[in-house]
Write a structure and sequence with these properties.
By secondary structure, this protein is α/β, with parallel strands linked by helices. The protein has twelve helices and 16 strands.
């Protein structure tokens, strides 16, 4: 945020923006000085990855098949065995079937928000949306509660995310890469790589000039919290842009061919490999988005030829890659769409929005894989028994990270709000 006087933008802010903008650097508006919060030092997970399946994948055709349901419900796909006895998933997820021991399937997750935006907001923060309050996302809470290295961005989204800082403020927002890595091509993020011939020395000179100006203007702005906040963001932005570690964290070409092979050649697989590399480098929270799940028509062709092979290859690569690097136990992974799809196939051979039954996946963070928790009924129309809410899964996710879901923040009006207002951790996950 720039400050203005009667003549417009102040000289100080103009030079501050120029010092960062000339290098093509955009982190200053996203980054902040990190402060320790109420997290458990002994929590299994030190970092987190959130995979957003935008559009709402069908539970009936992926992780919760109903081979004995009526023909107009069960669809075209057959279940296959996984490497865990008694657990079956879709035939078009063979790579995930081979690493079922590394993750947990939650079935019978249920809510009532059938609109994309509302459902997405819900599952990205674990609180049912209300008009009077904008809740912070998982990534923003983790950014606040899990301090990271000052020369690394704490929260990265590939290529972008619906996760918002809410009432915590923009200093807890994500840094979007704006693009996905491509197989066999160098990948750089605007702001991490210096562009247009600008060198680190150039940035250091501008930073020195800015420091001198800060001292000159300090007396006029001593009581401005906004200026103090901007100073903190800019300082971390400077730390990141001049840090070889930050640039290397985004350089997937550093991975060995043998390691990269497991992720395939699709953009989603490359994004999952980047997420793995970022976590290994010390980034606290990473989101990866795979869209295209809004299959109202011709769903079986779309799923078997496009969505499921892409998901299968990239997500299996993520689980196996984290395990190979010894990071799965210390990384909390959460995979979800905003809702499921209608159990009954529509006349256009598609499935429509259906929040009453859906799946979610969890891995790492002290949670033992190779299990299915919860169930939907025989036609996949709703949970069998109580089921789980997104709030329950959110409370569980925070527990994996050692963050109490009952932790309270205050809004800018002084209103106390718990991190997760409803829901409790799922006990079976932690046995």
């Amino acid at each position: 945020m720039l400050h203005t006087n009667c003549e417009g933008t102040t000289r100080r802010d103009f030079l501050k923006a120029g010092a960062l903008g000339t290098a093509g650097f955009t982190l200053a508006g996203y980054l902040r000085g990190l402060e320790a919060g109420e997290v458990a030092a002994t929590a299994p997970a030190k970092a987190a990855i959130f995979v957003n399946l935008n559009g709402g994948p069908s539970h009936m055709d992926t992780f919760d098949l109903k081979p004995n349901a009526p023909e107009d419900h069960r669809g075209e796909f057959k279940p296959i065995e996984t490497n865990v006895a008694g657990i079956q998933i879709s035939e078009h997820l063979p790579n995930l079937a081979k690493c079922m021991d590394k993750f947990v399937i939650l079935r019978g997750v249920s809510h009532t928000l059938a609109a994309h935006d509302l459902g997405t907001d819900y599952v990205n923060c674990g609180n049912r949306p209300i008009r009077s309050l904008d809740f912070p996302s998982y990534g923003s809470v983790v950014t606040k509660e899990r301090p990271g290295a000052p020369d690394l961005p704490p929260f990265v989204s590939i290529p972008n995310s619906r996760q918002k800082p809410g009432y915590l403020g923009v200093q807890y927002a994500t840094m979007n890469t704006g693009a996905t890595p491509k197989f066999g091509q160098p990948f750089s993020v605007r702001g991490i790589k210096l562009n247009n011939g600008v060198t680190v020395s150039d940035v250091e000179k501008r930073q020195s000039l800015l420091s001198d100006l800060d001292k000159t203007f300090k007396g006029f702005e001593a009581n401005s919290q906004l200026v103090e906040g901007l100073d903190r963001f800019s300082q971390q932005a400077y730390s990141v842009i001049t840090s070889p570690r930050a640039r290397e964290a985004f350089d997937i070409s550093k991975e060995s061919p043998a390691f990269a092979e497991k992720f395939g050649k699709r953009d989603f697989g490359m994004s999952c490999m980047l997420a793995c590399r970022l976590v290994e480098s010390g980034v606290r929270f990473v989101t990866v988005t795979l869209g295209g799940w809004d299959t109202h028509a011709d769903c079986f062709n779309v799923l078997k030829s496009q969505r499921l092979p892409t998901l299968d290859e990239g997500l299996a690569g993520l689980f196996n890659g984290l395990a190979e690097k010894g990071l799965l136990e210390t990384t909390a992974v959460y995979v979800t769409g905003e809702f499921g799809r209608t159990p009954k196939v529509n006349p256009r051979v598609g499935r429509d929005h259906y929040p009453r039954a859906m799946f979610m996946l969890l891995a790492g963070g002290g949670v033992k894989g190779g299990r299915v928790l919860g169930a939907s009924d025989e036609k996949g129309t709703g949970p069998e028994g109580k089921g789980f809410s997104p709030d329950d899964v959110a409370a569980s996710y925070y527990k994996m990270l050692g963050i109490p879901h009952t932790l309270e923040y205050q809004t800018n009006t002084g209103r106390p709000v718990m991190v997760v207002r409803d829901g409790q951790p799922i006990p079976e996950l932690f046995v």
